Amino acid sequence: MASDTLLARISDYANRPDPYPLYAELREAGPAVRQADGSYLIGTYHEIVALLHDPRMSADARSRTAPAPYEVTRQPSFLRLDDPEHHRLRNSAMRPFGPPHSPGRVDSMRGEIVQLTKELAEVFQEGRQIDVVDDFAYPLPVTVICRLLGIPDKDEQLFQDWTDTLVASADIGPEGDTAERDQAAGQAEQEMGQYLVQLAEQRRGRPTGDMLSDLVNETDPAVRLSEENLAVNTILLFIAGHETTVNLIANGVLTLLRRPDQLDRLREDPGLLPQAVEELLRYEPPVHMRERVPLVDIDVAGTTIPAGTSVILALASGSRDPMRFSEPDRFDPTRPDNQHVGFGSGIHLCFGAPLARIEAEAALGALLPHLGTARLVQDPPPYRQNAMLRGPRHLPIQL
Amino acid sequence: MPGDLKEGRIVIVGASLAGLRAAEALREEGFTGSLTVVGDEPHPPYDRPPLSKQVLLGQATADTTGLPMRRDPNADWRLGVRATGVDLLAKQVLLEDGESLPYDRLLIATGTRARPWPNPEEASLDGVFTLRTREDAGGLAERLAAGPERVLVIGAGFTGSEIASACRERGLEVTVAERGPAPLVGALGGTLSKLAAVMHRNHGVDLRTGVTVTALRGNGSFTGAELSDGTRVDADVCVVALGAVRNVEWLAESGLAAGPRGIACDAGCRAFNMYGIVTDDVFVAGDVSRFPHPLFDYQMLSLEHWGNAVEQAEVAAHNMVNPGPLQRPHLAVPSFWSTQFGLNIKSVGVPTYSDHVVIAQGSLEARRLAVVYGYKGRVTAAVTVDMAKSLDYYKHLIETAAPFPPPPGAQDRAIAADVAIPSDVPDPSGLSHGPTVALTGYLPDRRLTLVQPG
């Protein structure tokens, strides 16, 4: 089949359960493969890494001159901005989250996260059928990110609805009219932003130890976020802070149940868990693709990509590139030199990676004892619509 | 027989970062023979970067910087004993306690020591320090914690600048005396040294440039120093940060190519003898080595970089236990980092190997920038200030000998990105404080005569 329709085929829902043969086809077709819609698809590791580090590549969708799959009207979060704005906003958001200003924030949550995973794992009783997504993989990161930001538990459902709407609009795909979808997203974003700003406002001068409190009480005017930026970037932190982790945990359980030998190995030696999480990020990553736009004509392994063109970096393909990883289609928790691009790389390297690692380790650690006799009820399970943020919608298992 | 290389006796002289990493790597490579590590300090291997940062800030004590072992190298550690020579013919390392250690293969990783203040009497004044060892750092940290009136730092290379930064962070008055026109000029050239000078002064450092210290004063205890411009600095602590001296004297009679610039070796870390003939069984790694690097026209590089010690040790270890065709070259692109005055400075390539620079991204004013160095039209180095995540891109340009200046179109691109200005790096032969990059390296201080045997 023609390689210029690969992106269409990858985003075709029918291929969601196993896009990996398409990625292999992509890598075979060359480092930079032009698609029918004019965009380029990149699937080889070294090219992806080089482009992620290349300061001539913009993360800002507004840099596109070629026809855009959807209209960008809203203020972007730092995820989709370039330096220096990106750096300023990311840095402001980082202050209450990580080093050097808040070095202990994430690690101090470890105990709480482990406790949460234990409580959630109580439904895992022999003989029961449960849904790993609804009963475990989803509630854990949502609860964690709500506590981290300072969102009351009672409003979780509100946030879930807003998130679903926003994530749907962030998908790629050449399907037709997206006006309705985009309008819904705009409205969700506005409501969610307003809610977060109001919540933060309540904590001005009355901090409650969470990130919203820290952000709104920032004393340095040079790094304090404007109301608009506070809204946009806390929405990003909320969504990115759990959306991907849900998939990481569900993909992890699915992978282990498909490979009883590796499951047994981990059950015998839970010390391998940190490495197993890294291997999952390589083998079944939650984030499959990211978009970039060259600011000038750029050469990728002999192909010139014109400035302003949409370039889709297929991270999940890069992490399975046989030019970089030996036996890339084998899940091996003891794999040495596992420099995957599961968290991206370069200036946009995943902000929440330390938290995601702790959550995934704690989650799998709590589930391991229950998985020995478990089996998949449905394989492949039903997947979520999104091709960029890929994971099972449900994962029913019989204990 | 190749199998034999995994057995036999290996002696490593030098029990710091390179020595430890080599010992670990030898075992990882399957070496099953006897392994002896000789170190003149009484401690197991420890890490030095924290000594001029966290330790001086009081965030860690000097005795807590021990290097973690990736695996037990199962070695016979001979600590607190100095090696005094090598007999290449008899294949023995001579120790100061009179013992000699026979070897089949030898790794020299003796590193460097702080360049002492040239006048021994002045250097022995109480309150005068150098900063290289754990004891140095512990003693200095104690003195800083006691709250001296003023600290004088002699030399504004990386170590001197980090010390000054730590002093200011502790609220101590500090004077820095630098013989060059600005701090860090020896390592980074003129453009970034201007930023460094601004950072010193903005943080309240009394920075004196273009001066040397002519004498240290005191009666038993240090009280101040005389400067070449006729002024005097009153201070009660003095840190001499004039770079490092390579620990090669013990090899003077060995017949190895060991001199003030280090021990010359080939790309596979095999030492040269004094006639430039490569040895088969003597290897070198870390700060004490000088090695040819293809990215820098095979000139002999001397690097005092943490990363170089690790990478070279691993290559040396590999080559010690593998036959010729399986041996690997040490080709790592040099890199180092520093933190001072709240800035994170990272370097890749060899900034002194340059004729021009451009500010490719950011700006001096923003104190966040990437400076790219070029030599004869190709990229040879880059230094980022608070922009470390961009470094890999520039590293790739260096590795691929990309044209200089780098291509336009970067986000956060500086207005000056197209304006190449002279890199203003000093002649390496005049460098006195590190991290040293001496490209030509050769000091004709000792004339060799070929002696015909028998």
Automatic annotation (TrEMBL), chain A:
Signal peptide region: none
InterPro entries: Cyt_P450, Cyt_P450_B, Cyt_P450_CS, Cyt_P450_sf
Keywords carried by this UniProt record: Heme, Iron, Metal-binding, Monooxygenase, Oxidoreductase
Gene Ontology terms, MF aspect: heme binding; iron ion binding; monooxygenase activity; oxidoreductase activity, acting on paired donors, with incorporation or reduction of molecular oxygen
Cross-referenced Gene3D superfamilies: Cytochrome P450
Top-level taxon in the UniProt lineage: Bacteria
Keyword field contains Iron: yes
Family stated for the protein in its record: Belongs to the cytochrome P450 family.
Protein name: Cytochrome P450
Native organism: Streptomyces sp. R41
TrEMBL record, chain B:
GO MF term list: oxidoreductase activity, acting on NAD(P)H
Domain Reductase C-terminal: 336-406
InterPro entries: FAD-oxidoreductase/Apoptosis, FAD/NAD-bd_sf, FAD/NAD-binding_dom, FAD/NAD-linked_Rdtase_dimer_sf, Reductase_C
Domain of life, source organism: Bacteria
Gene3D superfamilies: 3.30.390.30, FAD/NAD(P)-binding domain
Pfam families: Pyr_redox_2, Reductase_C
Protein keywords: FAD, Flavoprotein, Oxidoreductase
Gene Ontology cellular-component annotations: cytoplasm
Requisite cofactors: FAD
Residues in FAD/NAD(P)-binding domain copies: 9-313
Cross-referenced SUPFAM superfamilies: FAD/NAD(P)-binding domain, FAD/NAD-linked reductases, dimerisation (C-terminal) domain
Protein name: NAD(P)/FAD-dependent oxidoreductase
Annotated organism of origin: Streptomyces sp. R41
Lineage of the species this protein comes from: Bacteria, Bacillati, Actinomycetota, Actinomycetes, Kitasatosporales
